[in-house]
Amino acid sequence: MTTVIPIRPLDTPGRSRPRHTPKGRQVAPEARARIEVLCSGLAPRADLLIEHLHRLQDAEGALRHGHLAALAERLRLSQVEVFEVASFYHHFEIVDDSAAVPDTVVRVCTSLSCAMAGGETLLADLQGALAGDASVRAQAAPCIGQCHVAPAACVGQRQLPHASVAGVQELLARGETGPRHLPMPAPSDFRQLRRLLSGDIDADQVLAELKASNLRGLGGAGFPAWRKWETVRAQPGPRHMVVNIDEGEVGTFKDWQVLGSAQAGAPQMLEGLLVAAQVVGIEHVWIYLRDEYHDLRGLLARELGALDSKLRSLIAQHTGYTPPRIELRRGAGAYICGEESALIESVEGRRGLPRLKPPIVALHGVFGRPTLAHNPETLWWLPEILARGGAWLAGQGLRGRSGLRRFSVSGRVKQPGVHLAPAGVTLRELVDDYAGGMAEGHTLYGYLPGGASGGILPASLADVPLDFDTLAEHGAFIGSMAVVVMGQHDTARGAALNLMQFFEHESCGQCTPCRAGTTKAVQLMQAPEWDAPLLGELSQVMRDASICGLGQAAPNPVDSVLRFFPHEVSA
To answer: I need a surface site. Which of 157, 190, 310, 320 has the fewest CB within 10 A?
Structure first.
C-alpha cells in the first residue's frame, strides 16, 4: 500500500518561505560606501583587520554596528570574526548606528606611578569639571608609558605630561588633540650595515660579536640574543621578524625614550633591524607599536619613508642585496600583546590570545613561519656592538654582571626618567647616583624592581644587584627594568591592589586561573584583613595553571606583601 504525503502550499501557516537575503545583519549601501572611503588605500586583507578598525575608530570616534558589517564584507570575514576582534581591544568602542559619541576621550592613567602622583584624584576632578559637556569624556586608563611625568593623560591622541584639569581644558580649547610632533632624530649613515654588505664583516663575525657582548633580550625575558638568531637562522625560509614595542608593563617607558631620542634613536634601531635581517635571512618584518605612542608612530612612519630611498641606494651599490619588507602595525590597547605569542596573533589580525606554545615559539611564529622576535632596545645595541666590539659591552657591568641596562625609574625620586647604568647596579646606587636621590619628604620604603609583575621588595634589600637572575631568591625579577620607588607614606598593600586591578583589567580571559584568579584576588585584597592562606593557595593555582606569563606572574606583588610586609596584611 502506498502512503501519500500531502505537500503543504508555501502560504500555509508554519511553513518557512525561501530566504531572499542571507542571514545576519544586512549591509546598508551607505555603510558600504563609508567603509570604502575610510579604508581607501588599505589592502582588504584579513591580517589588516585591526588597521581597518583603527581607520573607523579614528574617523567616527567609535565602531558602529553597520560599519562593522560592511567591513566584514570587504575583508571576506564573518561578522562574528570582526566583532570578536573589535570587542577584544580596549581602544575600540562598539556602539549602535545612531549612538552619539564624544568628539574627544581623555584617558587618565590610574596605574601605580600615576596613582602615587594623584592620578585618581585628577580623574575625579576632571570628570566633575567636564560634566555636562557631551563633546568630551574622561575615563580611567591603565599605564600609558609616561610614568616619569606622572600624573599623565591622553587627550584624544595627545599625551599630556604632568596633567592637570587646567592643562586638559587648555588642550581641548585649542583643539590640540592630535599627536605631538617629535623632531626627526639625527640621521644614521648605516655604517655597520654597509660593512656587512661590502664583506668587511660577515654573518658569522656578527654572531661572534653578539655572543661576546652577552646581549640579552631587553623586553623582559632576558633570553640570549645570539641564541634566538641561531635558532631561527637554522630553520628553512621564509623567515620573519617582529619588533615588539608594546611596552605596557606598569612603570616601563624606556623604549619610547630610546626611539624618540634625538641622538639617532629610531635610525639606529632600524639599522640593527636590517643587520639582524641580513644575518638571519629575514624576508618580512612587522614593527608592532603600542597604541598610546601616537607621536612615536608618526616619527617611525617618517623614518620608514626616509629608509626607502636609503635602501634603494644600498641595493644599487650592492648587487644581490634584498632588504626585508617592513610593516608598521598599531596595537589597540592590550597589555597581553606584549607576550610574544599573543603579539603574533595580533599581527595576524586576531584577538591577542596567548598560544599554548612549544618551548621555542619562534619556530611557529607569524603565519606559521620561523620568526625572530626582538625588543627595539636589543636591536638598538647592535650597531654599538659592531662599532665597539662585543667585549666592550660585556665589560660595562658591575659585580660580575655583563653589559649596560636602561632603567625606567619613576615614583618617589627627584629625577624620574630613563637612566643608563651598569648591569648589577643596586637600587640604592640607582636612586642616589642616577635619579637624584629620594624626593623631598620621602625616605625609601620599598620598590618594584621589574614593573607590575616583578614583585615588591623592601628597603632592606636596596643593596641587591639589579639584573637578570639576581632577584629570584627574593621572589622577584628585573623584567623590563621598570623600577618604581616607594616612600614611607606609601603602602605595599595599596600598591599590590593597584597592580592586581591592572592585571584583572588586562587579562585576556582565555584561561580560568588568570581570568577568575585576578578577580578573586582583587576581592580578597580589598578586605580589611587579608586571608593569607587563601591568597597563598590562589597564588599557587595561578602560577601552576595559567597559560602565559600574565597569570603566572600576577600573584608576585601579593606574595611580596605576605613575605616582606606582613604588618600590612591588616589594614
So the answer is: 320
Question: Could you say which DSSP state residue 184 is in?
Answer: P
Secondary structure (3-state) at 84: helix
Name the grid cell of 505: 583589567
List all residues 6 or more positions away from 27 whose beta carbon is below 8 Å from its beta carbon. 66, 69, 70, 73
Q: Which option is the CATH number for 104-174: 3.40.30.10, 3.40.50.300, 3.40.1180.10, 2.102.10.10?
A: 3.40.30.10
Domain 29-95 superfamily per CATH: NADH-quinone oxidoreductase subunit E (1.10.10.1590)
- What is the DSSP track for 257-303? HHHH-TTTHHHHHHHHHHHHHHHHTEEEEEEEE-TT-HHHHHHHHHH
404-568 belongs to which CATH class? Answer: alpha beta
What does the alpha-carbon distance between residue 518 and residue 554 come to, in Å, rounded to a whole number?
8
**pTM, to two decimals:** 0.93
Cell of 219: 623586553
